[in-house]
Amino acid sequence: MTYTTLSLALVFVLFPLILSKALKLDLEKDTIIATIRSIVQLLAVGYVLKFVFNAESFIYILLMISLMILTATLNARKKGQAIKGITWKIAVTLVIIEVVTQAILLGFKIVPATAQYIIPISGMLIGNSMVLSILFLNRFTAEIESSHDQIELILSLGGTPKQAIHGQLKNAIRASMIPTIESQKTIGLVQLPGMMSGQIIGGADPVQAVQFQLLIIFALLTTAALSSILIGFLSYPSLFNERMQLLRKLS
Amino acid sequence: MKQTNATAIRFENVSYEVDGISILNTINGSFYKEKITTLVGPSGAGKTTLLKMCNGLISPSSGELFIDSTPLFSIKPTTLRKNIGIVLQNAPIIRGTVFDNIALPFALQQKKLTEKEAILFLEVVGLEHTFLYRQAEELSGGQKQKVAIARTLVNKPKILLLDEITSALDPTSASDIEKLILKINKESKVTIVWITHNIEQAKKIGHFTWILMDGQLLESGESDILSTSSNEMVQRFTNGVLEK
């Protein structure tokens, strides 16, 4: 695809702009910012990836993954600011997920240990973990706010913080994992995943593309389970003090 | 106040504040063993905060609470809360049957409450055994309150803290609960601390009464202070001039 043909694709941006203006949705500015950011960010990433792939150095791979984890952490922490120390808790979760998944992928030689495989797969897994973390933190903080009496009841009867928060933790973990599981049930029937579609458009063998997509799907299941559970178990102790009291203010 | 009464919980210069706002201010006084002390005062007086402090759900900002001369906050929280039970306002009920609710304190200790034991606790609060497997959320306000009391009694607390447990009930249910608490106090020698908005109830039930206003202990003593106090604020409160 040439840049000229790509620029024609900007026609798609005109539709939301016109609709937003006509219906007074007040989304024109955000749409334009989002469009410019996506062009700049993706083009920059494209050139950076080209450089990293050519360099074939693990240092650059590590730098790219660290940057992904940092960006994902800074984005996800906005939803959990009420929880003390949420930044490092999200960062630790993402690092563990990256280490576990790459250890399996590279350890079993499922994919070659090259930047071309490690970086895109890491991007997908870290990105998915970030979304799951946001979903989890949204639900978890809402659960705590609405179940204050129930949590205090368990504590008042001699329960531990872990027992008091168990129901809310379980609900939030389930709620954040369900979209991943549900979307996988209809995958291929309702929507063709982005990565697979991209490979097919790029001329790859569709069966080969499906095999890679399946690999990602299975890895996403692990990240879904690990993200919510790790952040959940790292976060709940900071909701209580050493006297096993539910903190009035979470931060 | 009679010197012969043994102290169950003692407050020594207890204050509590949140974001610089004083909720309780230099509280000094005692709840006596095997007696019923009622706490009265307008909304926002700090009554619930004081009660939650006794159960260890809140720590004072300054000052200290003592149980039998042991600092309350030196006791392991789970042990303290088993010995000092609290029935919270509006009796939060967990999803499930009445049995699930009554067995909850045991479940938290990885112990099993038998059906026979659960029925005994139901009998104590005046509910028939047929209630055992009914869905707790479907019960009336009075029945839920009784389940909540039974649930707290499962831990066999030495002190029972009650937060407005009859305020949302009809007069018959409220009277049932009053009789029940009197029975628990008399037969099981449980020390009772009871927050109530109802001045008549406070006079009728309490051996002692604390009158709290704006986080301060305005007056304390035998419950007839509610009728005999010369304190103008107390008189205005008991006569209904101040919001209860």
Key features?
heterodimer; A: mainly alpha; B: 244 residues; alpha/beta; six-stranded mixed beta sheet; four-stranded antiparallel beta sheet; 9 helices; 26% strand; transmembrane helix (chain A); transmembrane (chain A); Putative ABC transport system permease protein (chain A); UPF0014_fam (chain A)
Q: What is the fold's blueprint, element by element?
A:
The complex is a heterodimer of chains A (251) and B (244).
Chain A: H1 3-8, H2 11-22, H3 28-55, H4 58-76, H5 86-107, H6 115-146, H7 148-156, H8 161-185, H9 194-201, H10 206-235
Chain B: E1 7-18, E2 21-32, E3 36-40, H1 47-54, E4 62-67, E5 70-71, H2 77-83, E6 84-87, H3 98-108, H4 115-124, H5 141-153, E7 159-163, H6 171-188, E8 191-195, H7 199-205, E9 208-213, E10 216-222, H8 225-228, H9 232-238
Parallel strand pairs in B: 3-8, 3-9, 6-7, 7-8
Antiparallel strand pairs in B: 1-2, 1-4, 4-5, 9-10
InterPro entries (chain A): UPF0014_fam
GO cellular component, one term (chain A): plasma membrane
Subcellular location (chain A): Membrane
Question: Can you describe this structure?
Answer:
The complex is a heterodimer of chains A (251) and B (244). Chain A contains ten helices and no strands. Chain A has 251 residues and is an all-alpha fold. Chain A folds into two domains: 55 residues; 184 residues, no CATH class. Chain A is globular and about 70 Å long. The relative contact order of chain A is 0.11. Chain B has a single domain, classed as P-loop containing nucleotide triphosphate hydrolases (Rossmann fold). In chain B, 35% of the residues lie in helices and 26% in strands. In chain B, the strands form two sheets. Chain B has a six-stranded mixed β-sheet, with helices on both faces. In chain B, a hairpin with a 2-residue loop joins strand 9 and strand 10. The longest helix of chain B has 18 residues.
